What does this fold into?
Amino acid sequence: MAEKALFQGQGSPTLISLFSAISDRKKDYYRILALQNKKNEVTAWLTYFGKTVIDAQRQTIKQIDFIIAKAKFFKAYDALLNPRQKKAVLRIFREGPKGFEGGLSAKNYQRLVKTPSATATRDLRDLVEKGIFTRTGKLKTTRYNLNLASFYPVISSERP
It folds into this structure.
């Protein structure tokens, strides 16, 4: 309802998702709501809601920056990826801006693209050499992450 009210107040659609911002901190939402049900003082609720709107805006900016980075990434690298690598990259992108928590392991890559260990090792080495993945750790703790840093827009200090 709050998103609809914002839409009506502005006279145009908003690009923020209050639901997502509220869902991220449900306990705070219910705690503040419960406090407001006990008394008629709404200052705490308005403060909470204002901060939530700002958090939702930040999340939206991150999501838009991520979509832009994804488009730039595929423009630069699509032709360099084999079908297995592309499948893995698309799966990582589905996780959103956070990517795979802790990075992608060689075993995960094998399972994801259904390939033997030797092929997975070759594919991952190739992705690192091309600058598509970054590599951290050694042996069993080796993890791979998409190297998106150069595709993100320069963040202005004036952004919310």
In short: Residues 156-160 have pLDDT under 50 and may be disordered. The first strand starts at residue 133 and ends at 136. The chain has two domains: 2-62, 81-151.
